[in-house]
Write a structure and sequence with these properties.
Layout (H helix, E strand, L loop, with lengths): L14 E5 L3 H13 L4 E5 L2 H10 L4 E5 L7 H8 L12 E5 L4 H9 L4 E4 L4 H12 L5 E3 L5 E3 L2 H16 L3 E3 L23 H4 L1 E3 L3 E3 L6 E3 L1 H19 L1
Parallel strand pairs: 1-2, 1-3, 3-4, 4-5
Antiparallel strand pairs: 6-7, 8-9, 10-11
Length: 241
């Protein structure tokens, strides 16, 4: 078992590779990271370009977008986490994404990412996530699929999922706010049960909204229309009286 390669470093010691196909987002992340006084920031448009350079000159942290083509951020993570990619397989990986659904975050964490930050990015949230990651003592272990994952994360997520099913009956509406969208506890997770998903903090039953199976976003249903029609009928009846 091996801790990630940035464990115990100071934020000023970081050599960060940023992978994002959006030039404006690259600029935001670069300026924000340099504002934190990290040692070095390199930006890339695609995972392929980043991997080519990282093989020759490894960083000690990767920050990547999720939605990119042809290779997504998850594709990059899975590539890095392969045993044959050492020493890159032990790099901490932090995701930034505008699609902070419970399903996506669960998938990212199970594949071996240390953290997720939701766009639009708050500098304070990013600073907190980076510092948390630097203190994250959870080891990386080789999974059954031959890729390294963070020890204990899958078991913790399975337990959370069972609790959500018991509480919400599978009909919960997940509402995410940027202020609470970073994944993980505020302290280094010696106790794995401290691992939090943003959805755990804000899960509510909704009698007037369903959840799309693919992206977890609320959509209007016939119940909304029925409710509005009933209100209109009552108002017309009062006017006639």
């Amino acid at each position: 078992m091996t801790r990630h390669y940035a464990y115990g470093l100071d934020i000023n010691d970081l050599d960060v590779v940023v992978v994002d196909d959006s030039k404006p987002m690259q600029t935001i992340l670069r300026s924000t990271l340099l504002g934190f006084r990290v040692r070095r920031v390199r930006t890339f448009d695609t995972p392929e370009e980043a991997l080519e350079v990282m093989r020759l000159d490894p960083p000690n942290m990767v920050i990547t977008d999720w939605r990119m083509k042809p290779t997504s951020g998850i594709g990059l993570l899975r590539n890095i986490r392969q045993r044959k990619m050492a020493p890159l397989c032990f790099l901490p990986v932090v995701f930034v994404t505008a699609h902070g659904t419970r399903t996506l975050i669960d998938r990212i964490l199970r594949d071996g990412a240390q953290n997720v930050v939701i766009k639009p990015i708050s500098p304070s949230a990013l600073f907190e996530r980076l510092n948390w990651t630097l203190r994250d003592s959870r080891p990386l272990v080789l999974g059954e699929n031959g890729r390294y994952v963070v020890d204990g994360v899958a078991e913790s997520l399975d337990e959370k999922a069972r609790k959500w099913q018991q509480i919400g009956g599978g009909r919960s509406l997940v509402a995410l706010s940027p202020a609470r969208a970073a994944v993980g506890p505020k302290r280094p997770p010696a106790p794995l049960d401290e691992l939090r998903l943003p959805s755990e903090a804000i899960v509510a039953e909704s009698p007037t909204a369903d959840t799309r199976a693919e992206d977890g976003q609320p959509v209007a249903t016939g119940r909304n229309k029925t409710g509005f029609a009933k209100i209109a009928r009552v108002r017309r009846a009062k006017g006639a009286a």
